[in-house]
What does this fold into?
Amino acid sequence: MRTSVIKTAVLGLTVASTSLFAEATYSPHKYQQNDWFAEFGGNTAMYVNPAGISETDQLEFSAAFFSSISGEASQEYVSLTFPMDYKHTLGFSFFENGASIDGGKSYGEYAFLLGYAYRLMHCIALGLDVSVLYINQFDEVTQVTLGADVGLSWNPLNSSKFGYLLVGVALQNIAQPAVSMEEDGGFVAPGFFGGDRDDAYNIPSNLNFSLFWRGFNRLIEAKAELSLIDVFHSDKEGGDGLNPEMSFTLTYYLSPHLGVRLRFTKEGYPVAGATVNVKDVSIFRYLALDLEMSHDDLYAKKNRGFIWAVKLTSRFGDTREEKIGEERYRRLKIEPENDYRAAMRLYLNRQFLEAAYAFGKVQTKYPAFHLVDQAAFYKAKSFENLRMHKAAKSVYEDAIKRYPQSDQRAKYHFQLMNIDYKEGKYIDAMAKYQNIAQKFGESDVKADADYVAGQIKFEQGLYQESVDLLAAILPGNANYFYARYTMGIAYSRLGKFDEAENCFRDITEQPVSNQSERDLQDAAKVKLGHLFFSGEKADIPAAAQMYGQVQPGSPVYDEAMLGIAWSFLKVNKPDEAIKPAQWIIKNMPESFLVSEAYLVQGYCYFIKKDYNNAVKSLEQAEKRTEQPVVTVAARDSARQAYDAMQDEFDSVQVKALDLARQLPTPRVQSKREALQPSFNKANAAIEDYAAFTQKAIQSDRFESNRKRILDDAGFTLATVKTKMGQGAANSEAAQELESLDDDLDDLE
It folds into this structure.
C-alpha cells in the first residue's frame, strides 16, 4: 500500500527506529511501502491510485486499525467514498500513524486526503487526490506539509463469463510531502520531481502499476502491484532510485459471505486473513469485516513480531446504476413535462408560432411521452389560430395516423371539420361530421361537431335543421351560449317568437365567465329588445329596459342606443329619443348605424316642428346611406391583394411546419428567425383581409336596411319640405307622404 500518508508513516517509523536502536542508520533512499490497507478498485483506492475510486458503486464507508501485538506502533484510518453520478466520484480519508519510544515520547502523523475521479469514457477514469499532513516528531517538532497524486484506471473487462478486470497506473507524490530537518517546524512546502533541497527531505515519488481481477463467478479475487520507488531520484540522497517492489494478494471465497486470503507484502512477508460479509442488514446494503495477521518487521530485522489488522467496510443507499436509472427516469418524466408546460404557457399567452415550435419539440424529442398526442393537438391548434389552416390540417392528419390509440383522435377529426367550416367548405365539413357521428358518437366532441353542423345549416338557410342540431348543446358546454344565440335568430326567422325569446332570455340569465360570453349576453339583450319592440305583442317599455341593460363598450352598444332612441320615439318622446341618436353620431361616427341615427334625429326634429334641422338630419341620412360602406371595387381590390399574398403565405406555412418538426438546434433557430419577417408580412396581410371581410359582412347585413332608410328618409324629407311649402302637394308622391305625415302625427 502507498500513499503520501503511509510513506510518511514509514519514514517516521524509520526515524523512530533510529532512536530506539542505535545501530540503525537513517537511509531515506531505502523507501518502504506498507500495503496493509490498500485495495485498488475499492473504497481505499486513493491510497494506491485515486482513479480507482471511480469503481466504487455506492456510498461506502471504511475504517481500519493496524497494530503490533506489543502496541508500540499502530495505524488507523477512516475513509468515505461518494459516487455523485456516472462520471464523478469523490473520496475522503483520514489517516493516523503513531509510534511510542522510551521516555514517553511519541511520533505521530495525521493526514487528510481528498480525492476525485472523473470517468473519461465508459472504461477509463482519471483521478487526483490532495493530502494535508500534520507531523509530530517526538513531541519536539511539529509541521504541516502537502502532497498530491494522479492516476489513470482502465476497466477492459466486466462480464459474468470472464470476470472483472481493472488496470491502473499512478504517479504517487507528484507533489512530494516534505519532512523538515529544521527544529522550528511549521509549514513545509512540498517538493516536485526530486528537486534538491537543504531544509527538508522530500518523500519519494513513485510509479505504481496495479491490477485487480475477480472471476470464476466471484470465487476468486486477485490483486497485484508493482511500484518503482523514487522515480525522480536525487543523488544527494544516496542509492540508485527506481527501486522495484511488488505485492500480491489472493482471496478465495468458500461461500458468498466467507473468504480466506493470502498475501505477500512488498517486503516479502506473508499475510493470512479472512473476510466475512453480509448484505442488506438494517441500513447497510453491504457489511464486511476483514481480519489479517502476519509475522513481520516493525523497526529492524531483530524486532520481528506479530502484526494484526482489522477493517470494517459498509455500503449505503442506491448503487451508481440505480441513481443513474432514477435520474434517467426523472429526466424522461420531468424534462418532457417541463417542455410541455413551457409550450402551453406560450399557447395561453397567444404566442402561437413559438408555441407551435415548442409543441413540435415535445413531439419530436419525446415520442414516448404520455402527453405527446396532446402536444400534437396544440401544435395544430397553434397553427390554426394563426390561420395556417394547411399546416394545421397536416398536423391533425399526421396525428390520426401516428396515434391510432389516442383519446385525442375525436378532437383531431373535429378540428379538421372545423377548418373546413371556417374555409366555407360546407360539403366537406358535413361529410366529416357524419364520420364523427358514426365513430365518436359517445364522445364529448360530438356536441362540438353538432354545434358546427348547426352553424352550417343556419348559414345554408336550413333553420329548422339548425335548431335540431343546436338543441343538443347543453349547459356547461363551451358553445352553449353561442348555440342558444343562433337558435334564437333561427326561431325568429321561422316566426317562432316565443321560442326565440326563450333562447335569448336563457342567455341573459346565465352567469358569464369571460368577456366573449359577456358580449354575447349583451347581443342577446339587444335581440330581446327587438322582439319586444316589433313582435306580435309589442312591449315598448320592456324593449327599452332590455336595450338599457347593455353596458358601454359592448360591441352592440350602438345598436342598443339606437333601440332606446326608437323606443322613446315610439312613445312620442322626441326630446328623450334624440339624445341616444346624437350620442351615436358624435361618438361612433364609423358605425353602420349612424345613417339610421340621423334618420331618428330627423324624425325627432320633424315631430318638434324644427323643420330646418329635420331637413339637415334627413339629408345626412340619405347621404350616409346612398353609397355602400364596402364597395364592389374595394372588395375586388382586397381579394386580389389576398390572392397575391396567399401563395407566399402557403410557402410560409410549409416552412413553419417543417421547422416545427425539428429540434431547436442553432441552425434551426436561425432558420426560424429568418422566417419571422416573412410570417409577419403574410400574417399582417391575412389579418387585414380578415378584418376587411368582417366589415364586408357587416356591410352586407346593412344592405337589408339600406332601402328602408333611404325610403323613410326620402319620404320624411319630402314631407318636411311640403310642410315648408317647397313641394308639389298635389303630386302622387305628396299624397303618399301625406299618409306618412299622418302616421307621424299620431306619434305627437
Summary: The two ends are 120 Å apart (CA to CA).
